[in-house]
Amino acid sequence: MAKRISLSIRIVEGKNLPAKDITGSSDPYCIVKVDNEPIIRTATVWKTLCPFWGEDYQVHVPPTFHSVAFEVLDEDALSRDDVIGKVCLTRETLASHPKGFSGWAHLTEVNPDEEVQGEIHLRLEVAPGTHSRLLRCSVLEARDLAPKDWNGTSDPFVRVRYKGRTQETSVVKKSCYPRWNETFEFELEDGATEALCVEAWDWDLVSRNDFLGKVVVNVQSLCAAQQEEGWFRLQPHQAKQRLRVEGNLGSLQLEVRLRDETVLPSSCYQPLVQLLCREVKLGSQGPGQLIQIIEETTSTECRQEVATSLLKLFLGQGLARDFLDLLFQLELSRTSEANTLFRSNSLASKSMESFLKVAGMRYLHSVLGPIIDKVFEEKKYVELDPSKVEVKDVGCSGLHRPQTETEVLEQSVQTLRAHLAALLSTLRGSVRACPALVRATFRQLFRRVRERFPGAQHQHVPFIAVTSFLCLRFFSPAIMSPKLFHLRERHADARTSRTLLLLAKAVQSMGNMDTPVSRAKEAWMEPLQPTVRQGVAQLKDFITKLVDLEEKEGPAELDLHPLSLHAPPVKEGPLFIHRTKGKGPLTSSSFKKLHFSLTTEALSFAKTPSSKKSALIKLANIRAAEKVEEKSFGSSHVMQVIYTDDAGRLQTAYLQCKCVNELNQWLSALRKVSVNNTGLLGSYHPGVFRGDKWSCCHQRDKTDLGCDKTRSRVTLQEWNDPIDHDLEAQLMYQHLLGVEAALRKKHLELRRDPEAGPKEVPEDSLAQLLHVLQELREAHGHSPGGLHLSEPCHFLQLQK
């Protein structure tokens, strides 16, 4: 039994952002923070006040997380990026929206007095005194405080206030992880109602002290408990909130959903999984077919999520092809017009989209990657629409002449023809590179469609059925938005975006088999039609070979999860490495660039991607993977991998990434592959041991317990992650529970329908499903999974 808490995040777009550049525009991007920890950075959208991102993320978070914040910044090449504003959604807000928060939210000003973070460790007790009881407050340490000084640290001290009396700790210089171990006492009168206030401040010599956060303790509750000790989350200065005018900083459109799942042991889900698998294996049709009933009772907005869960569930059971084949049959049985086939947002269409992203993403990268890279590198001006052509000067210095519209159009056609030729050439040679499971699924789709629409007048229909998924729903969207398919790290600029859009339109025309209807929409695409017609012939030849290639691999191989075949690296790419020996200052110049590869056995490195690899860390020896303080190396993108050597001693490797997204992707990958290791650390030092002390907390014992908690539960969901079978079964159970009323209504209708035939309740699949749901509901009711970890002191309250 386990808790799986995650955030589904979609950052859609922004509008009415303020201009931050002298051009009257901005270059906005978003940073997503979970409890002040930067997790995601979107791409920058250049020169706009109404950016569109359309980026989706799945973030796994610990049970104790409190909020997720979306900060919008303006990227500047020569100075610090300007903060535009932020949207903060608390866990309580997200929990109040079971189907997820969706809509526009106004950006608010980033107020320094509210930008607090971190926790403070207190020991509180009521003790007997000479004349009266004493309220004793021991300020032990703090962690993850906000850096307020230019050097990336703070000089924190704590101020304790009670009934007009104030006492302060000493100042700890240059640390966000201070340790004080100081105790303060106050006389406590009977019936006292005032609260004890513990405030953290950053000391400044020449300016006012900066507020770091506070904790307000209910003394009456403490008197009842007598003593408490624990870590308390620092809270902002509520009294200093500024009055804001909503909307003057613009707005963000967001879709955020909190999933808090208690995943039971695998055995609890077996009845549900076996029931669904039996239905797929039988492939039965009619009003009692479970898959068809699930589709009918699923709303349009939930269909993609249900399709993905079902697809992954059957993929894990080796039945993905059978499941998709069943959906093909259901769709074909209710389709009378060939030109409407797979054009709706049916369960079949959504499931195939998910299938291609899970099973075919590596194939997509191998086919499209070189073409997309070339488009980005060339940055050629391409335009086919005469109404949008920009005539510019051409020629060498001193001989400039205006480039004619005809020249622009001719050059654009030549450029697009070259890209299409390269794409088709790569595609024709990739038949065997296409995953066996994908080939088998397309083969089955082709055969089913040809059986449903025989005859010469429908000879194109089986090909269009394949291309409707391969081209229209997979290749073409990836060409238009390569970042969303992990082909590029950044969105394209305006010129490159136009080239990609025109290229995607040409691929769509080929996918539609160059029908008259597709040509009539945009007449200015006509110059490309000869190339498109040639491409249609080549595409049909490719599909013919794809579906004719028989399953020589054998059925067992086809049923395997495609990502488990040949075990490709979990993560690979260039990183800078530095292994400190604790001698002298550390600078970015001490890093060495190497190519790293993470597999299910080890983290290895090599001078180049093709050279021989040397193992750096055995996977079983990893004890933690965490970020390093920016001040340690002068970079905010350094991570540390803590591991044991052959002698059992703890060692640390410091690896520097080029951006926050790459940093979090590596941390996520390392945490996932080592999640079951024994001896994982619960704390670590975010600094380095320089000279004779830790740079973070100034402790002089190198073997000292870490001053910050590890964050092993914070990971990013990636397209190439292994499937979590129990979680997918739990997600399907949750969905079915939500539509249980509709399922019961359907069950009554089937029992009353004389055409449905006699049905005995024990043999009725729908009745069995309802019984399985009831058993799972009871299993969840008896599980302790509903209990959440919370802050240790139940009497801690904020003053209203």
TrEMBL record:
Coiled coil: none
GO function terms (MF aspect): GTPase activator activity; phospholipid binding; zinc ion binding
Domain Ras-GAP: 302-512
UniProt keyword annotation of Chloroplast present: no
GO biological process terms, semicolon-separated: cellular response to calcium ion; intracellular signal transduction; negative regulation of Ras protein signal transduction
Keywords (A to Z) from UniProt: Calcium, GTPase activation, Metal-binding, Repeat, Zinc, Zinc-finger
A Pfam family of this chain: PH
SMART domains named among the record's database cross-references: BTK (SM00107), C2 (SM00239), PH (SM00233), RasGAP (SM00323)
Domain of life where this protein originates: Eukaryota
Annotated ranges, domain PH: 568-675
Location of the C2 domain: 1-105, 116-232
Keyword Metal-binding annotated: yes
Protein name, as recorded: Ras GTPase-activating protein 4B
Native organism taxonomy: Eukaryota, Metazoa, Chordata, Craniata, Vertebrata
Gene: Rasa4b
